[in-house]
Amino acid sequence: MVRYVAWVLCFFLVSLNSAASPTQQEQSVLLISVDGFAQNYLHRYKAPTLHQLAKRGVTAAAMQPAFPTKTFPNHYSIATGLYPAHHGIVENNIYDAEFDAVFRMSKAEEVRNGRWWLGEPVWVTAEKQGVKTGTYFFPGSEAAIKGIRPALWKAYDGSISNTDRVQSVLAWLDLPQATRPRFLTLYFSSVDDAGHAYGPDSEQVAAAIADVDQALALLVAGLKQRDLLHRMNLILVSDHGMVKVPQHQVIELDQLFDEKRAALVLWTPEIVSIFPKAGELESIYQQLKTSLPAAARVYKKAELPERWHYQHSKRIAPLLVVPEPGWRLMQKHKHQQWLAQPGRSEVTGSHGYDNNSPEMQAIFIGHGPVFQPGRQIPAFANIELYNLMCRILGIEAAANDGDPAWVDTVLRPGTTAVQAAD
Ligand code: AMP
Ligand code: ZN
Ligand code: ZN
User: Fold this and answer.
1) How far apart are alpha carbons 126 and 4 in whole angstroms?
2) What's the CATH number for 248-343?
3) 117 CB under 6 A from ligand 1?
4) Which residues surround ligand 2, an ion (CB under 5 A)?
5) Fewer Cβ close by (within 10 Å): the C or N end of the chain?
6) The CATH fold of domain 26-244+357-420
């Protein structure tokens, strides 16, 4: 009889264990963005912590950014699962005719204005469903979107050291369960900064990667100390890559068309958005079509390649000029000012170009209970991450451009009942 009871009890405990629902930690996500970390940096530069996370987690052959391969559009595609044309952050600089206003990353009052941010970022989806979130920087996280902000968020301040950012996120993980976030972000810009200033092959990029890796080592040690390293999920990504720009690869675009025929031109070296005055679209288009060198192309909105999914937004300009990777579009006077800059490197780096270009590809590393160590997955588009994060958090996703079936190809089989590894 005693033996029988023991067997029943044993069976009961085993079945309880295998059917256990995931714990709070297993259903948590720390999303880490290393801005401008090109896929091809991963094995070119020393980054012991990053390599260890990759070895013990799931890695992708590449993560494809959305077009244009810029910071704000791509962070917000990662957060919402939407292409930029659908989430409204179509560029780092945006003009909206209805607001008659321009959005720039440096204009805090616009960055914090929810009117620009369409769709639903994962922290809003989470908060709506009672899941606490905390963002240590992420484009969009400073605005009330659908009236909702992360429970914990920070005003962007690039001067805060990478290690201070890590310490703050670790402190959030020490909060009592009722207020502790289950979705968190961390953001580092130093690798992108070095890539722009000195190019992707520079010793400065190597140093910036080593520095971010040290911050990650601090994070890993802090998670280990809290017994969280294998109990919560880390998703480490970048927003886009970086390509070398030799100093002579400049097109003085303002010399090739009559700027007075445009009501507004949003100048960036990698994409120029032209809003022609009434009746001037065709004339500007023809001017550029005949004068542009082979390294750049002018597009009417309807001519933009389908694969960019970059058409159906009133914020996308009627005319766009896009150069080949490694080329820059500049106004003559800006070009001259730039040439005269003291201490300027002859080689610089940039991004924003065609999202098919190999140098623009981003990274993905998933580490934690839902990710099978050592697994490699094929390249995928960053709009898939929103569904993945919602699934891990156990929340219902809002409508998005990702494919929910993709998530099943990434998660460890039987994930919903997965037990934390040691
Ligand atoms: P990009 O011009 O696309 O290379 O943008 C990268 C820069 O965006 C970084 O160096 C930061 O200075 C800036 N940045 C990143 N996140 C934010 C943010 N949340 N708010 C304002 N600026 C940001
Ligand atoms: Zn970026
Ligand atoms: Zn950048």
Assistant:
1) 46
2) 3.30.1360.180
3) no
4) 35-36, 71, 192, 239
5) N
6) Alkaline Phosphatase, subunit A (3.40.720)
